[in-house]
Amino acid sequence: MAAKRSVAVLRPALNGTGSHLVRAQCPPTLRQLSRPLSIQASRPRRNSPRVPVSRRYASSDNSSEQLGRTGLYELHAAHGAKFVPFGGYSMPVQYSDLSIIESHNWTRERASLFDVGHMVQHEFSGPGVEAFLQTITPSSLSTLKPYNGTLSTLLHRETGGIVDDTVITRLPDRFYVVTNAGCREKDLAYLNSELEAFRSDSSNESVEWKVLENQGLIALQGPLAPEILERVLGEAAAKTLKTLYFGQSTHAKIDSTDAEVLISRAGYTGEDGFEISIPPYATEAVTQFLLDSAKDELRLAGLGARDTLRLEAGMCLYGHDLDDSTTPVEAALSWVIGKDRRANGGFHGDSIILRQLKKKSEGGGVARRRIGLVVEGAPAREGAEIVDEAGEKIGNITSGCPSPVLKKNISMGYIKDGLHKSGTEVHVVVRGKKRKATVTKMPFLPAKYFKEPTVAAPTTPASKTP
């Protein structure tokens, strides 16, 4: 067991959280991040002026544009990070100690630490909060127990299109919601508008909304993540962690600091792991303490590895695999729609989404569906067309890269309904040439989430239950 170190954390009079809303434009592009060998990035000069973290600007290909910085920017630079614009921030794409592929494999074999502090963290509370969130999402939040979370989608009122994908966690007195940095401006405008509409109905109870500005958020991912985190928690919290299942959360304090953090068993890599929300004043100290506690097991990882990991795990990236015109049913996310919501509706776009859930013989169905592909030859990246044997377009690629683990070219995209079944052979046009491709189930790699054991149904009528 690693020796425990004392970390000095100075608590300011105010911790920097609040409801001040600062907006940035969206969305940035991650297209180049799936090309590990051709990333154009450079390490910033250490003596460059620091951009205040409370100011956030739009991503741009113009390097003169100012970008926001998370609370870990200086730590990234000290560890040899190469930065790229992403989600309105200057974010690390990789570090000097590992290539993107090496970082990818390190995560699969050991553990990596990702800075996801560019994501937008919200708190919603008040007596009307559940009704409000169930209006703008299709999830069964009424049955969600405290400290349990779910992936969900914010929906457009008329079309049922996805405004953004989000994770919603019920806490004892509020809901904790995380949305994408690239859609910050759009999401905040949407939430403002929806709250105004909700409050305009006098029959609705009150809702309070706070954006946790500058709140730290890190993702500890990989098979060694539980062991690493347990070592820096007190005995009681470490014991709780052992029975914390995927999608569940707990509050805890990191050893040798006074910072209470929210630990959620979640992630974007397909591996077991955690996302840790940290007060702004303690973000760098907690992150450095984690790194120091596991020097031979834990490495920092950037957006490059995060993108290839999430694609192997079949995870969507908003602005690429999801957008405003896509419904949850088309995106193969029907599972986020709760059983009671399917029966009763009551969420934005319910008439369209519930009809899409029906069989075609009943007037339902969709014209396209999200699928995975294994492509022969050169990798098929975003924008490539999926065609049939005759060369007729039947879909398009939204994400793609060589899989470091499978040693195959994998892609995600949308294809004409009826051709979405696993094993269907199609072609993808790459650099003007047709490449053979096979529709494949996702995730491409089996997920390793630490899930609650399912109770098997009784095989005999020996013990009947009401």
UniProtKB/TrEMBL annotation:
Molecular-function annotations in GO: aminomethyltransferase activity; transaminase activity
Domain Aminomethyltransferase C-terminal: start-end pairs: 368-444
EC number: 2.1.2.10
Binding site for substrate: E275
Alphabetized InterPro entries for the sequence: GcvT, GcvT/YgfZ/DmdA, GcvT/YgfZ_C, GcvT_C, GCVT_N, TrmE/GcvT-like
Catalyzed chemical reaction(s): N(6)-[(R)-S(8)-aminomethyldihydrolipoyl]-L-lysyl-[protein] + (6S)-5,6,7,8-tetrahydrofolate = N(6)-[(R)-dihydrolipoyl]-L-lysyl-[protein] + (6R)-5,10-methylene-5,6,7,8-tetrahydrofolate + NH4(+)
Region (Disordered): 34-65
Pfam families: GCV_T, GCV_T_C
Keywords on record: Aminotransferase, Mitochondrion, Transferase, Transit peptide
An annotated GO BP: glycine catabolic process
Cellular compartments annotated: Mitochondrion
Keyword Mitochondrion (UniProt): yes
GO cellular component assignments: glycine cleavage complex; mitochondrion
Predominant localisation class: mitochondrion
Stretches assigned to the GCVT N-terminal domain: 72-340
Function as written in the Swiss-Prot or TrEMBL entry: The glycine cleavage system catalyzes the degradation of glycine.
Stated family: Belongs to the GcvT family.
UniProt subunit comment: The glycine cleavage system is composed of four proteins: P, T, L and H.
The name this protein goes by in its record: Aminomethyltransferase
The species this protein was found in: Lophiostoma macrostomum CBS 122681
